[in-house]
Amino acid sequence: MEKLFYILSGLTLISAIMVILSKHPIRSILFLVLTFFLISAHYILLNAQFLALVNIVVYAGAIMVLFLFVVMFLNLNRDIERFKSWLPLAAAVISGSCVFLVFLSAYKSSHQIQIENSGGYQIGLVENLGEVLYRDYLFPMEISSVLFLVAMIGVMLLSRKEKTETVKNLLP
Amino acid sequence: MNHIPEIIKTIPFDHYLILSAALFFIGMIGVLVRKNIIIVFMCIEIMLNAVNLLLVASAAYRGDAAGQVMVLFIMAVAAAEVSLGLAIIVMLYKNLQTTNIDLFNQLKG
Questions:
Q1: What is the pTM of this model?
Q2: By Cβ atoms counted within 10 A, which residue in A65, A117, A125, B37 is the most buried?
Q3: What is the C-alpha to C-alpha distance for residues B25 and A49, in angstroms, rounded to an integer?
Q4: Is the pLDDT score of B2 beyond 80?
């Protein structure tokens, strides 16, 4: 049971690194789908069964189809991009590592969090989660529906046909 | 189903903390390193998922369902963000015919 966690963690980190390292965007998307599935497996290990299903449906289902659709729509096959030159790359890796070290040292210097294991392994089921969501968090959920409405209107507004001249004509 | 909660007793919470910090760090490196705007977007998704993983882990360790509700809200915001961002990317590609973020400097004063 312990080994399962470490194998899953290693696979998650490797596939997340492969998202960055693979040259072709479609390969990155497929590795991202793999990462999401592995994170769903982590959710199942943590007794969040409903969230695991929602993660697969929302991320691997909806968002990834959107990404694949956009990549195939844009036809990026002709120019395989190269990485940046080594100086910004080294700066990025060093600054990212510094943030990671800050996380670790902040954790080390903080007092140990006492985890109370209340043994409630029913909390991830739909019944319990829906009760909490619709009793304590009803208003934020209604607000998120307004957020979706705004996002939908925004996408329609963005993808509308422009009547005026585009930015391309204004370029030198 | 009965032996599943044992994972909480065998794995210390620190390991989940380090795993999600490492995932966040990988996403941040990707945002800083890559030039294709679609892959930058995917790295933002990785960072959001790292935060989700930490929230679910702390909810499971404390036996509190509020953290999982927060993950649901983060997923809703991420879905809205991805749809809007991809629409913006498509519009940028229509105007400039590229996805290289070094060429998106029209807002520079």
A1: 0.85
A2: B37
A3: 26
A4: no
Number of A/B CB contacts below 8 angstroms equals: 228
Give the whole-angstrom CA distance, residue B88 versus residue B94: 10
B9-100 CATH, one of 1.25.40.10, 1.10.287.3510, 3.30.460.80, 1.10.760.10:
1.10.287.3510
Nearest CA-CA partner of B89 in B33, B46, B38 = B38
Residue in A115, A152, A167 closest to B95 by CB: A167
Tens of pLDDT, residue by residue over A56-102, are 998 888 888 888 888 888 876 655 555 557 787 888 888 888 888 88
- pLDDT tens per residue across span B61-76: 887 888 889 999 999 9
CA of B77 vs chain A CAs: smallest distance (Å): 8
Is some CB atom of chain A closer than 8 A to the CB atom of B103?
A: no
What are the E-state strand segments in chain B?
A: none
Query: Taking CB atoms and an 8 Å limit, are B91 and A81 in contact across chains?
Result: no
